[in-house]
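Chain X:
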Amino acid sequence: METELSADQVRRLQLRAQGLLGAGARRGGVPGMLRRLGAVQLDTISVLARSHELIAYARLGAVGRDAVEAGYWGGHRTFEYWAHAASILPMEDWPHFAFRRRAFLRRGWRWHKVSPSVCDDVRALLRSSGPLTTRDLGGAKAGGDWWQWSDHKIAIEWLLDTGEVVCTERTGWRRRYDLAERAVPGRLLAQDPDDTACLTHLVREAGRALAVGTRADLADHYRLRGDQVDAVIGETGLVPVAVRGWKHPAWADPEALASEPRGRHATTLLSPFDSLVWDRARTSRVFGFDHRLEAYVPKAKRVHGYFVMPLLAGGRLIGRVDPAREGRTLVAKQVSFEPHAATPARAERSMAALREALETAAGWVGCDDVRIERIVAPGDL
C-alpha cells in the first residue's frame, strides 16, 4: 500500500535530509555535509562569503572559513563537475558522472570547437608541470559582452568536460586542473559504469538528499532529464508515496521514512544557491515561499534586493535579507518578512529569529555591528 504523507511531514523530512533539523547535521564536518547533500553548487557572487561557504555555515555554524575550504578541497576528497550546476562533488561519485562525460564526447564540443593540437599541448603541460590554473595555461581575457576564452582555456575546459582532466581545488577562485590519472584514485578511475548504472545511482542519491521528491525534483538535483529518471526509478530503491496537496506522484527514501524528524531547527540565513531552495518550484510547493535571485534583475526592478538570502527559522522560510558589509558592520539593506511571520502572534518570534541570524552571521564574517536599513512586512511589525 502506498504511503501517504502530509505536506508538513515532507517539509520536516526535507529539512532533516538537508542537514537543517536535528543533531546529525554536524556529523562529519564539511565532508559529511557534502556526502549528505550530494552536491554543493558553486557561484562567482560573493557578498558575505562565497555560496559554498554559506552552505556549510548554515549547517555547521560558525566554523572558520579556512577550515571550510580545507574541508571541501583537502586531500583530494572532492572534485568539481557539472551537477545541478558547477558543483563540488564527493570523489566517490566520479565514476557515476561517466554518462555525462560520454555525452560530451558524443557531441564533440560544448561552447567552442576544440583544437586537437592545443589539447595535446595542454596534456603535455599538465603532465610536466601540473596541477595548473587557467592563468598558468594562458587563461581568458575580458572583452565585449562575454568572456573570450583563449585556445588553451577552451582546451582545458573540454578535457574537464570529457574526464581527462579534473578540478580538485579552487585557488583564488580559479580552478586548479590536473590529469584525472593523477588526481582520481585508481580504484575509482578503473570503474566504468554504463549509463543506466550512473543514472540509477544519481537518482537514488537525489532521493536521499531530498528525502521526498517528485520526478521533476529528482531530475533537477543533478540536472537529469525526466525520461532518464523514468528509466531507472524502479531500480533505485526509492518508494512511491502520495503527498497530500501535491499534483504529481512522489518517491521517498525509505530510510528517511523509518523515523520521525526530531531535534533543533536551524535559525540561519541561506545562500540563494542552497540546495534547500535552488529549485523554485519545489521551494514554493514545500515551503510556500517564492524564491528568486535578483542579482541578474535590473536594479530598478528588484523587489527584495541584489543577493537575497532566505531566512530560515522554526523549520519555515519566514523572510528574506539583502545583506552587505561596510567595514566591520553587517548591513541588512532590506528585510522582507512573509505574511505568516508578521502576524501579531508570531511577530516577536520572527524579530528574535532575525536578530539571531544577523548577529551570528556578523560574527562569522568578522563584523561586530549590525545595521538594518529597511524592514518590509505586512501590518505593524
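Chain Y:
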Amino acid sequence: MNITAVKHNGAEIALVRSNEILITDVQSALDLMMTVNYEVGCNRIVIDKSAVCEEFFDLKTRLAGEILQKFINYQTKIAIIGDFSAYSSKSLKDFIYESNHGRDIFFLDNEEQAIEKLSTF
C-alpha cells in the first residue's frame, strides 16, 4: 500500500494505491482509516475500487452499509474510483447515485474527479 497526500482547495486528501484488496470487512476499513490518519493526517481518502472486495458492491451482504457507516462515524470522507458500469443491480446504481449527491461518500470515475469532489466539502 502506498499513501500520498495532496492538497487541493485547502483540503488535504490521501491517495491510497494498492495492488491488493484493502477493504474486506469493517475492521479492515477501520484499519485503513487509522493508517491514513496516522501516516498523512488526512480524513479524506481516495481509493480504487479494485482495493475493495466485491462483496461490498453486493448490497444484500450489508457490508457496504456497515463499512460506510464507520466512515461517517469517524468523520472520514471517501471516494471510491473506477468503472461501476459493469454492475447491473438497480439498488447499487441507486445507492451510488444517492451517495454522489451527499457530502461524505462518492463513487467516481477517476482520481481527478475524486480530488475535486473531496475538496469542495
